[in-house]
Amino acid sequence: MTTSIEVSHLTKRYDTVTALADVSLSVQPGEIMGFLGPNGAGKTTTLRILTGMLAPTEGSVRIDGLDVTERPLDVRRRIGYLPEHVALYPELRVREYLDYRVAIKDVPRPEQRARVDEALQQCALADVSRKLIGRLSKGYRQRVALADCLLAHPKILILDEPTVGLDPHQIRQTRELITQLGRTTTILLSTHILPEVEMICHRVTIINKGRIVAVDTPAQLRQRLQGSAVLRVQLRGEVAAIESALNALPGVTRVTRAGAADGFHAFDVQSSPGSDIREVVFRAAVERQWMLRELSQAQASLEDVFIQLTTHEEP
Amino acid sequence: MSHLIALTARELKSFWYSPIAYVVGALFLLLQGVVFHLLLLALSDPRSDPSATMARAFFGGTFYYWFACLITTPLITMRTFSEEKRTGTIETLLTAPVTDAQVVLSKFLGAWINYGALWLSTLPFFLIFRMLTPLDWGPVFTGWLGTWLLGGMLIALGILASSITRNQVIAAVLSFVTILLLFSIGILEGFIRDPETAKIVEYLSLIEHTADFAKGLLDTRPVVYYLSVTAISLFFTGRVIANPRWRS
Question: Do A87 and B14 touch (CB under 8 A)?
Fold first, then answer.
């Protein structure tokens, strides 16, 4: 089966700024992939390249096996794209707008009416179909744009922050709709809201500062850190020796260097769930006569995973 | 083809749903009505030049004609691309399975039809005129045709201007200045002594061509001139839209 979205080694540079650096990403058919990252991480840039709105500096994108720059029209026929900033023609009525959109999306003429009805139904817009788009609230406009995405029954949906600016009730409806659509459609969902990812997505790609920092299922991402303690340790001594000693301690699963300041080296020490390694770390420091300046523990949540993956403290 | 029709229909709707259409339309009709009335008075004066006709006076014979052409076209075209860029609808438009050529052509056709509709609104003037006095429809028809072809060129230039900015005021000023430059070449004609240069200027002069059309002369040279500038402008608009740097 052809991979639905295949992004390989994508780089986007503007004069001096590198917006994306060697981004690779693949979404399998039927999958709902979360695309997570803080604002300005490069999510929208990536999605714009996927839809052919922007050209990559390097790298390639294949949608349903087709190269975006070589077969732009065939690619656009296969995707429904909800842009970050929903923009519609305010002077048109909802129905009028969707009638226009369905006509430019290669839907056979006899089917067009039914498609518009279906999209209006799916997005709960039937009762505002005769209203002017300019008079609608932000939530309704968002749904009109989503309805537009569904008109051509695309194989792939690319949604850029679909729930931003909605009220809690609308957010819930939108998520339910996305989950429901996900049963038949491949979805790439960009967001910076973590619970959304946990609720909807099968897998998550985390991007930060134009680089992919993690790809995993939400459950595994959570499991990887939930319950397990991350211990911040600052010690003075030979850095490699400390690192290997910490790694050798019982219960320790992962040691990462977290910078150095005035002779002290900082480490983030992860341990298996349920174990408290503070005492062992203290003993190890005493035995080897390392000065200990910090020994602090925080309970990790998915939010911490995200923060940890997307924040780089300067050494 | 169905794409082009749907896109053009959207252009026409958006124009006629906006207040600009009615302000431009009303002022246009008012201006043309006043001009027609004044010309009628002038032509019915027994001392007037016997060779003068209504068609020649109305199409290009007065400053008002040029005012109507040069002012209305930037107003019709200023929104075409810049408004889509400003609001962001250009992104939804260009990610739909339509070609750049279809997008550009639909903008052009929409604006050209609107412009044609404005000028067609002067038809009743001539119908009333015809009821009172004999009228040679030939020059009236070619006068309209010339005006419409000229408008196509001005509209294509205006759409090109609109495609490079997201500000519709800048788009309007830019196309107005370009159109004015093209128009003013005709005014310079009398100052040029070199016969070769004079020929070129004469060819480019909008005033001369329009006067010919209003005499009932259907010359292919201005038709080729107008159509080629139209085609070139639309081609460049397509290039602008295809360029990722300029498209949004």
Answer: no
Instruction: Report d(CA B98, CA A77) in Å as an integer.
Output: 9
What is the architecture, at CATH level 2, of domain A230-297? Answer: 2-Layer Sandwich (3.30)
| Mean pLDDT, rounded, of chain A | 86
Residue A251: which region, alpha, beta or left (left: phi > 0; alpha: psi -120 to 50)?
left
Q: Verify whether the Cβ–Cβ distance A92 to B9 is below 8 Å.
A: no
* Strand ranges of the sheet holding A5-14, from the earlier edge strand across to the other edge: A17-27, A5-14, A58-63, A66-67
By mean pLDDT, which of A50-54, A208-212, A252-256 is the weakest? A252-256
- The pTM is what? 0.82
**Chain B nearest C-alpha distance from A261 (Å):** 44
Express each pLDDT in B123-155 by its tens digit. Answer: 998 898 888 888 888 888 999 999 999 999 999
ipTM: 0.88
The reply to whether residue A104 touches residue B98, judged by beta carbons under 8 angstroms, is: yes
Tell me, what DSSP letter sits at residue A132? Answer: B
Mutate to test the interface with A, among B5, B12, B84, B92 (most CBs of A within 10 A): B92
Q: Are strands A264-271 and A252-261 parallel, antiparallel or unpaired?
A: antiparallel
Distance CA B211, CA B229 (A): 19
Per residue in B210-231, pLDDT (tens digit) is 888 888 888 888 899 999 999 9
Architecture in CATH for domain A5-223: 3-Layer(aba) Sandwich (3.40)
Residues B72, B63: Cα–Cα separation, whole Å: 14
